[in-house]
Design brief:
Blueprint lengths: L1 E2 L7 E5 L2 E5 L7 E2 L9 E7 L2 E6 L4 E4 L3 H5 L2 H5 L2 E3 L5 E3 L24 E7 L8 E5 L5 E6 L30 E7 L24 E9 L2 E11 L7 H41 L4 H18 L4 H4 L14 H15 L8 H38 L15
Parallel strand pairs: 9-15
Antiparallel strand pairs: 1-2, 2-3, 3-4, 5-6, 6-7, 8-10, 10-13, 11-12, 11-14, 14-15
Helix pairs in contact: 3-4, 3-6, 3-7, 4-7, 6-7
């Protein structure tokens, strides 16, 4: 039997058939078995925020983060929804080599969740979607999650590796009971950027104080969250702030360029349809074909093969095509956000130059939509055909 070092009267007991817990100094006991096999438990110890259990013949098991157990009381039991105060999150980066996944025919248990573990309780299933929001110390929204979010699910046919290697995002659950949601300490990924294993992510939050807010059935509750730097990393806070600011700037610009590329892709599809519809109208067909050539020039050029995957070459004198700008911004974001260090002089200089180049590219794209696309749309309307449209407008510049 062990007493929790953080809460007096919270006891854990090992028996021949499992583990039990008492919240009132042993007067009452209940099972803490969860997914632990029925087996003889010979010893246990509370190590910081985890409960480590040694079994006879089943190796040892760890119950990760018992902070919700330490906060369990009558108020929690009576509440319709409850957000537990999370333990301190350590800002650690994933290993660069994830290793080969254990074969699925091998017995295994999941590894502990990484980064910020956010625990909450719902007495009943809410009538509407619930939300989890994270705010920084200045009250600015960092990330918002909802139980009705449409999450990306990897198609095994779209990846060249075993799907077991890929971790798809987990949903925010809205069923009755206890739940744990893990925030990866990252801001949202750049808008319109397709999620991939090696693609850019949102900037990593800097160490500091944050606030977690849970909203369910129109009622909200908040808890503080502290993020601390990996103790092995000695980078000063101001360098991490500069890294975050530059990564945020690159991510925002990359989102705008990616949105423009998405618009261009949709415009291509619409042009194919309109060319078929205008087959009997020589003037309109010529205008559509000319617009298509100009569209391709906006998106890419014959230099794409030379430009490479990330294209960190210096921008040219003329506005770069959208694909070049996206490749450069992607590469720079991965470089700037790739380690716990302030941006180098070269990275900062290249980022500034490509940020300016991307602004010029976006300005030219906006002019293309207004002038070239607007002119052809006038011809389409005269021919009583549906005009060409882009799904989403970029912010004015």
């Amino acid at each position: 039997m062990r007493e929790d070092p953080a809460r007096k009267g919270l006891l854990y007991a090992c028996t021949e058939k499992g583990v039990y817990i008492s919240f009132n100094d042993g007067d009452d006991w209940q099972s803490l078995q969860l997914n632990l096999p029925v087996t003889s438990v010979r010893d246990l110890v509370v190590h910081e925020n985890d409960l480590v259990v040694a079994t006879f013949g089943r190796s040892f098991w760890i119950l990760d983060d018992v902070t919700p157990l330490r906060q369990m009381d009558a108020h929690v039991a009576a509440a319709d929804a409850w957000l537990f105060r999370p333990q301190t999150a350590i800002r650690m980066r994933a290993a660069s080599d994830q290793g080969t996944p254990v074969p699925m025919d091998e017995p295994l248990a999941p590894n502990p969740p990484e980064l910020a573990m956010l625990d909450y309780y719902l007495k009943d299933k809410p009538a509407t979607a619930i939300q989890m929001e994270i705010y920084d110390s200045e009250g600015k929204l960092v990330r918002r999650f909802a139980s009705d979010d449409v999450l990306h699910k990897t198609n095994p046919n779209d990846v060249p590796i075993q799907v077991e290697w890929i971790r798809d995002p987990k949903p925010l659950l809205a069923e009755a009971g206890m739940h744990r949601f893990v925030w990866d300490l990252r801001y949202a990924a750049p808008k319109s950027v397709r999620r991939s294993q090696r693609g850019p992510s949102g900037p990593l939050a800097v160490p500091g104080s944050y606030t977690v807010k849970l909203t369910a059935n129109g009622m909200s509750s908040t808890q503080p969250l502290t993020i601390k730097l990996d103790p092995r990393v000695k980078t000063p806070q101001d360098a991490l702030v500069r890294q975050f600011e530059l990564a945020s700037k690159l991510a925002e610009r990359l989102g705008e360029v990616s949105t423009a590329l998405q618009q261009a892709g949709e415009l291509r599809k619409q042009l194919d349809v309109r060319k078929k519809e205008a087959a009997g109208n020589a003037e309109l067909l010529t205008a559509l074909q000319a617009l298509e050539k100009k569209l391709e020039a906006e998106v890419e050029t014959d230099r794409d093969a030379e430009f490479g995957l990330f294209g960190i070459a210096a921008p040219g004198k003329e506005p770069e095509p959208l694909r070049h700008a996206a490749a450069a911004l992607t590469g720079l974001l991965i470089i700037v956000d790739g380690s716990d260090a302030g941006p180098t002089t070269d990275a900062a200089t290249a980022s500034e130059r490509w940020n300016e180049a991307a602004q010029e590219t976006l300005a030219r794209w906006a002019a293309f939509q207004k002038d070239e696309l607007g002119s052809v749309n006038g011809l389409l309307r005269n021919a009583r055909l549906k005009p060409l449209l882009v799904e989403e407008s970029l912010p004015p510049r």
